[in-house]
Amino acid sequence: MMFRKLLTVRRLDAELPREVRAALVASLFAPFGSLIVGAVSGAVIGVMVSQRAGDPWMTVCAFAICLVAVGRIVSAYAYRRLARPDVVGFEARWQRIYEVGAWSYSGLLGLLCCLAILRTDDLGVHLVVATTTAGYAAGITGRNAGRPFIAISQLLLAAGPLSVALLVYGDALHFGLGIVILLFMYGMTDITLSIRDIVVQALVTTRDKAALAARYAEQANRFDAALNNASHGLCMFGPDSRLVVWNERFLELSGLPREMVRAGATMRDLVRGSIAAGNHPGSTPRQTMRALITDLSGETGQTFVGLGDGRTLALSRRLMRDGGSVVIFEDVTDRRRAEERIARMARFDELTGLPNRAQFRERIAEALKGEGRHAPAPFALHVIDLDYFKTVNDTLGHPMGDRLLQAVAARLEGVVEAPDMIARLGGDEFVVLQFATADRGEVEALAQHILHAVRAPFEVDGHRLDIGASIGVALFPAHGTDGDKLFKCADMALYAAKAAGRGALRFFEIEMDVAAQARRALELDLRHAMARGELQVYFQPIVDLSTDRFAGCEALLRWKHPTRGFVSPAEFIPIAEETGLIIPIGEWVVGEACAMAAGWPRDMRVAVNLSPVQFKDPHLPMRIIGALSRTGLPASRLELEITETAVLQDSEATLAAMHQLQHLGVHMSLDDFGTGFSSLSYLRTFPFQKIKIDQSFTRDLGRDPGALAIVRAVSAMGKDLGMHIVVEGVETQEQLDLVRREGCSEVQGYLLGRPMTNEALCALIAPEEPAQVGAQAGA
Question: What is the pTM of this model?
Fold first, then answer.
């Protein structure tokens, strides 16, 4: 039974965690004082007994006991100094050291008992060694029970020789005492094993509790770290509405003094402290508490709180099962500002700060609705468009244009007073709502003030900018009873104002609507004109004055409408340019002109006008190349006429396109010279081979000396620059003689030939090269 118990203990001991075994080994060397007392006591008893008995063997044994006692004290001290329980193998090494000392000491003590009983008859000596050994054995049982095999070994080594000596001494008393010692040894072994179980269980329990406490501490540290490093502030209140938990972020956000925030504080205490810290401006503790209770009531609640430094906190509350609650604090200052900015952007123009189109529509809808049962009051709608703003953008850049718009907005705000409203719709377009007025005179007066304000020069970043404005006005209810209709009427009036020469004011008139409808109908018909074959290319001859032969022809676009007949280019070309139809129409004209010119004599060129809009088309060079490739016309026989307006609008893009075409061999002419923003710098910058003097100067030849002076000056300049000079609009023989005398190169006009179809042209030039022209014309 005892043996099986020992085997079980040995197996369980091998399964003990290392830290438990280390604690059991440490118990062998502690307490240090008891180990010293035990070692010294045994040595003293040994010396006293050997001296009384006078036996040399006992003396040697006593001396050995003293030496071992000293060694054990030294090893115990060394363990205290060198203890490293964290080092693997440390406990096993020191256990072996202890075993050597303990077993040596116990064996010598048992030997001393055996010698004292068997070599002396002194009962006093017998009593001393027997009681000393029994006491030592009993002490070892309790002291070293954590390592039971060491304790039992010490018990056997010390009490075993004593029991044997008593049994063989020879009298009944000693024999009986020997039997008692044997029973004592069995009992002490059983006690040792029991104490060992208690000690090990206590150590394991302590270890588990320590591990559990460490885990709890680690979890608590993690919770504290997470809580105090959270981006949101947190407060937890118990069922009694008193503060239980809070984090550092709460202190940062609230601005409350640290000493004021303590466990057990009520929400009212925190509110008082928050107000004292400068938060909740203009609110008393009672008002703040009432607002918080109202907004945060229910299972979940949220509210926003303004702080004294301008920040905004979002407070959200969630109830817990025990009746407590958690309040989360979030700094939403940036988010609220962003939301406010987005809300403002939805109603205000970001560049100028004026109300935008959306707010304008809201206001006009309110004005049309009226107040209560009252009918809506009359008002005026002014639509304002800046004149020459695009020129500022193109020449000085968009940043300058933006600053000019801001300056215009500021000036308009100084003219338009409440309750009237000014808004920016986009680009350089503004609108003014002039409320509660039916007097046309008042409306016109405000419009004239606006025109005068915008007409005054602007100083922007050191630049003097002279612009103007055109205004179209519609009146409610005279011109419409809904916002879209009124805006459409004002827009038509604006179109009329710009057509009148800019810087003008126009009120809507019914004729404008009629004209707009007609213009719209013309636009719809124009969109289908090319597909229906209504567009035609006519040609007007150009004569070389040095040979009086045809040098070429200018291609002119004509539109023969099925019901209206021929439509003037002055009517449909602007529509084509505004709608972008000029791009496909212009490409078709170039292709037709090249195809027809391919059948003319080889020394005749064809001239085609290009719109400024076409030069904004990045694919223009490829369209020209495609036309030449399809028709087989040499590039040197194609001449492209460009107005000064095209050069002015986007000079860099125009110059790049012209250089591309010039490299192909296409000729360039400056058309209508003198009618636009004439600048001699164009003649040096752009690769023109020809200048065409506008017919407005030709018309006055013979009547106005100034016109002749201009023709003479341009002709002389052309010769110096190596350019050909073409005079347009020659209708009389006198005009022809004058331009011939001034040395002009070529002429064009009704005197020499009106615009005609290709068939008529071929018949006209047939006598010059009848075989060639006739063959190609009939092809």
Answer: 0.53
